[in-house]
Amino acid sequence: MSASAVFILDVKGKPLISRNYKGDVAMSKIEHFMPLLVQREEEGALAPLLSHGQVHFLWIKHSNLYLVATTSKNANASLVYSFLYKTIEVFCEYFKELEEESIRDNFVIVYELLDELMDFGFPQTTDSKILQEYITQQSNKLETGKSRVPPTVTNAVSWRSEGIKYKKNEVFIDVIESVNLLVNANGSVLLSEIVGTIKLKVFLSGMPELRLGLNDRVLFELTGRSKNKSVELEDVKFHQCVRLSRFDNDRTISFIPPDGDFELMSYRLSTQVKPLIWIESVIEKFSHSRVEIMVKGGKEYLMRAHFGLPSVEKEEVEGRPPIGVKFEIPYFTVSGIQVRYMKIIEKSGYQALPWVRYITQSGDYQLRTS
Question: What are the C-alpha distances in Å from 169 to residues 67, 196, 255, 354?
Answer without folding.
Answer: 40, 26, 17, 9
